Each structure stands twice: as structure tokens, then as C-alpha cells.
Sequence to fold (605 residues):
Amino acid sequence: MPAVAAHAMVVSEQEHATRAGLEILRAGGNAIDAAVAVGFALTVVYPEAGNIGGGGFMVIRLPSGRVTTFDYREKAPLGATRDMYLDRRGDPVEGLSWEGHLAGGVPGSVKGMLTALERYGRLDRRSVMAPAIRLAREGFPVHAGLLSGLESDRDLLCRFASTRAVFFPGRPTRPNGTAPGGAPRTTCLPADSAAAGLGPTAPAPNDSAARELPPNVTRREPFRVPGGLTRSLGVRAAGDTLRQPDLARTLEEIAAQGEGAFYRGRIADLIVAEMRRGGGLISKRDLANYDVVERAPVHARYRAHEVWSMPPASSGGVILAEILNVLERFDLRALGFHTPRSVHVTVEAMRRAYADRNRFLGDPAFVDMPVETLTSPAYAEELAASIDILHATASSEVLAGARFPSATESSQTTHYSVVDSLGNAVAVTTTLNGGFGSGVVVEGAGFLLNNEMDDFTIKPGVPNAYGLVQGPANAIEPGKRMLSAMTPTIVTLDGELLLVVGTPGGSTIITTVAQVISNVIDHAMPLEEAVAAGRFHHQHLPDAIFVEPGAWSEETIRRLRAMGHEVRVRGSASGRVNAILYDAGAGTYRGVADPRSYAGLAAGF
Ligand code: GLY
Fold:
């Protein structure tokens, strides 16, 4: 994973999207133009997460040093109700907020990206959308990672005829029990009769991606294409061309007519027709009323650095600030990288911050939040003082805001970072929530809808898909944004851009970003090391540290357990960071795409 050095750079999880951004930079676009080009390209080449059917957050630093953010998080439809995912006994109906039409929030990405483009871009809409339209219309060579991802999520995707038509054309189907809510469901047959054994397979020997990886890094997708995928996607195998004509037309209409095409025109009609077919709630009024909010960033200082991140409706910036503020009170460099003592204090900071997240944070249009207190140095001082340096604090003893009177992704989110030679920097994290979102392709429009409603508190005290146990501040209300953990972040030093960073990973997003920042600042790691380093996570509840396989020695785990921590080794890697670091010595940016992703690319010129 060599870092790439350049004066203008794009790092994303998909090489075709990175190249789309570079094309726009080369054509005279700035980082905002390039980021919007990447965002639209991802919707074509990365259906797992990318995302005109979803929402996201963008943090922009302008050449003047001013930082601003765009919140284009999805909203609950106006017909949504607090208990809409509960059965008659008041228990959550399994899967109802996760798969299918009812799981979808009102998408924000199209309006969000076009608003940012209008306010801070240089090029016109048609120019920045041209690469995405070309990728959809002319097609792109499919990566083995996408084929195997589709195969893993076959049961979700094949439930919907519109989705089968795009991703499994011609694949035979069979009945597959009942869907959440009781409707009969369908699945596609495995790619061939031998596919019953489809599980993680060893990397193909000649796959360039199969090079040596750090011990903690495992890839999410197997890299050998399962046999018999000849009918999947209408392509024969990895490397064959996938064309998406419906999606191409959708993008062409947006390019020609602007966001109105999506929120009021033919595409809006198609979304509402899809909702009617599948019992979803998104209406014409929801789409027409959808608004994007430009917000001031959350700001924190960390060891002389300035950290700028996303305010609510994401919890990312507030909780990142809270964690870093506490960590600043400990000399992590002296404690050492991943020593039991340094892991312990970091976990204790995470535990306390997530308790606050889960109790206090929500959509600022609906909830009063003690953001100033949570991000204040004085509060961090009190939290730090409550940490026993030798023993774990049980989460049951950590009450959110206990120290002042009033006071959390499947991980199919994606992050991209862009810088230009003019001094603009853009950090975008965007998502459909689960892999391939709700599984529903809008018929005729060719894109997948999100399942973001699951990020709300479905029932106070009951864990969501990420195990986050949240409260009433994040309860479902009509028109409300569900709380996110996405943490697109920019770090500056002495007024100069230093780091652009972010990651997918659901509830682990914030702790991953905090660790990359700490690896760079506290442990002076080169960016490639800071990104590849093993990761751990604590979110208050469940009261356990989750660590990537291979990240720690048995001895480290033993000593943490002796301090009272429950340590659980994850089954797979955590997060996929795409970051850019300024190298003051060389006067260039270094970009790194996480080795955990299957087709990430950092490129620049
Ligand atoms: N859907 C994951 C997040 O927004 O945090």
C-alpha cells in the first residue's frame, strides 16, 4: 500500500471513482467539483454504499482557512411514527427497519452534492457528472469484490424484482420463507450448484490485491470469483463490463435539470411508485420538502492541532472531540502505541463519550443538545479525572452526562478525501447504511434506496444493527434526521491543512478516525502505517473492547483482561479509511487508500 504523493489528490474506495475525480481536477475543477464527481461515480461503481438513494456529510476547507459542512442526511418520511417498527407487544419486528421499502429514509445525496457544487464549485453540473454518466452508460469492468459482495447479499437483493433485474438478470429464483411483516419472499439460486460452499476463499495467486497485508488486515470480500457467475449482472466474470442504462438516464436527467429532476420530476414519480408497490412511506411531499443544511463545523484542539468535523445530525464530530479532549490529558506517546496502558485510557475515553452520544444526541431541529458542554475542555477534565488508570470502569457505572445536571454501520458506508492545488480540501462520508441499503432498486431509475431508518432508536434500550443502545433523543419523528456516526474530518496545524480523513464502519467510525489522528499526531506514524495499524473500539454498551484480528498480542489481551476489560476479537477488519496527509518536508500531499478495501485508489498529479 504505497502512499502516493502529489499536489492535487483523490482517495476513494473505488478506482473508477478516484479516476472520475482526477478527470475533473485535470479539467480545471476544484476539490469540491472533484468530490461531487466522485460521489456520483460511486453510485455507479459502488452500489454497496454509493449512493444517490442515500445521504451523507461533507466537510470543506476553503483556501481562506474557513471550514464549512453540508448535512444531507436522510430524513424520516412525514408518515413515519415512533413505534412503526414495533409489533403489538411493543417489540421490534426483526428486519423491518433494515430491509425493504419501509426501511428507507428520504434520500439527501443529490441535493447535498449539488448544493455544495453550486456554492463552492467552479464547474457546471453537466461537467462534473459526465464521468459518472459515462461509467453508467458505457459500463465499467466489474471487480471480483463487487461480484462476491452481491453473492453474499443475494437473499436481500433477490427479494425485489427491480433489484434482480439490475443485479441478477436471468438468475433462476425460488421461494425463501417470509419477509419481515409476513409477505412471501423470493431468493435467487446460487450462481451454480457448487456455490453452496461460497464462503471466504483465499486470494487468487495472481491477484495484485493478494499481496502481503498487515496481520490485522483481512479483506471483507473474498477475491476469487465464485464459479458459475455467468448469469450474474449479465457479465461473465470479474473484468467484464457492467452497463446500467436506467441509472445512466437518471443521472443524465439530474445533470440536465438539476435536483428538481430527482425531488419533483420523473425520478420522484418513480420513487413514489416504488414505495406504493412495496408498502414504503416516502411521498412526493417528502421529496419536495427535503432540505440540505450548511452548518458550522465542530471544532476541537488536539495537541496544538485544530480538528474540524461534522456536527449533528452526525454524532461524529462531537464524540470525536470528546474523545480527543480526554486523550489530550494523557501522554499517549509516552504510554506507547497499543500498550495495555494506552489502550486502556483510550477505551475509557471512548466508553464515556459513547454514553453521552447514545443519550443526548439527535437531529438539532428536534433535540436540544449540550454540545458545548460535551466538547468543552472542562468537561474532558472531569471525565479524565474519573478514569482509574489501572482498572476498567464498568459501563453500568458510567452515566451519560453524570457530571453535569442535564447531559452510534453494517459498515457499507464509504469515505473519500480530495485536495486540490488551490488549497481546497473536502472530506465526504456517505452511506446507504447496510450493504446495498434496503435492497430495493427503484424500478426504472436504477439506484438502490437506503435503509437508514434503522439508525433511529427503534425502541429505547434495544440495540440497533451496530449494537448501539440509544435513547429518546434519537426516536423516530416525521421529518427528523436519524443520528449518524459518520465523521468526515479535517485537521490543520498552524493554519495549514494537515490531514483529511474518514471511514465507513457504523458505530466504529468515530473511534477509527480518532485512532488514525492519534497515530499520526501522538505516534508520528507515516500515513500508510497510521491507516494500516490495527484498530479497537468501545461504545459503552455492550461493555466490551472489539479489536481487529491480529492487532494485539495474547499478552496485551491478557493484561487488558486483568484490568477488568472484556476483549472480543472481531471476525473481520474494521473500517476502510481513505486519507490525505500533507508532507511539509516534501511540500506534497500523501494519499492512502485503506488496504482493507477491495478496490481503493489514491491518485493525484
Ligand atoms: N449508517 C451509519 C451512520 O450513519 O452512522
Q: What stands out?
A: The longest helix spans residues 340-360. The chain has a mean pLDDT of 90. The first strand starts at residue 4 and ends at 6. The pocket of glycine is lined by residues 409, 413, 431, 433, 452, 455, 484-486, 506 (CB under 6 Å).
